[in-house]
Amino acid sequence: MAGIPPKPWPTGKAMQLEPLVRRVLAPNPSPYTFTGTQTYIVGLGDGCAVIDPGPDEKEHLLALDAAIGEEHVCAIMCTHTHRDHSPAAKTLAARTGAAIVGCAPLVIDSNLPRSDEAFDPTYEPDRVMEDGERMTGPGWTLTAVATPGHVSNHLCFALEESGALFTGDHVMGWSTSVVIPPDGDMGDYMKSLDKLYAREDRVFYPAHGEAVEKPRQLVRGMIGHRRQRENQIVRHLAEGPHEAADFVPKMYKGLDPKLHKAAEMSVTAHLIDLEQRGLVARSGDVWQTI
Hints:
Elements: E1 14-18, E2 21-25, E3 38-43, E4 48-51, H1 58-68, E5 73-78, H2 88-96, E6 99-102, E7 127-128, E8 134-137, E9 140-146, E10 155-159, E11 164-168, H3 186-197, E12 203-206, H4 215-238, E13 242-243, H5 244-251, H6 260-276, E14 280-283, E15 286-289
Parallel strand pairs: 4-5, 5-6, 6-7, 11-12
Antiparallel strand pairs: 1-2, 2-3, 3-4, 8-9, 9-10, 10-11, 13-15, 14-15
């Protein structure tokens, strides 16, 4: 996980990335959101779509109003329902009259510790998009690409006119995605990475961090990294039974203690995947090879 770059950041400014795409950075930086959530506006004058409207914060909504101007908002589209991505959808829909479309609603009530954002209970889509479904507007077409793993309802959106893919939290240039059980699923996440690797997108626009100009190269590296972590877990289990927390100091040397819980959750996701594949077993909190 990369460190957050020094300020100033372009918070609140509409950045033109390509003819059909603008980006507005929300004021919600953190160790898990990098410099903040990036909202994308797709369209060129006659009508636009807003992707991942972000947190329901006055400063960010005013920045979106300024970026959109008098343009008609055709749709508000959400990749998933973590609270740094979808809460502004409801307010923006009330202001613009646009439909909320994209991922399915999902709220997880759990007393398990989390190291990412909690889920947004206010999200109410007018239309849930399935894999391959399209949303169209003046001069643009966005196709839903189902990518469960980070969370079960995660979608990416492919801009057919330019070869760009809006990847939400599934693929980010600054960090690997956090996969936290019970809703985060490492097996699904790996399948979704394979799915993106098989595509030929020109560029990835993630919700956090800069654009990814060599997407297949990055995805290949991410797949290799996850397989390396899996192999580390199997090697340590060959030494004897472990609890999930036991792996962290062995596998994440020098990691900031604030990030230990995230690392433990990632290990747990790998262990559950290995269990489902019949390679490890658990008794209570203790894991061992079969």
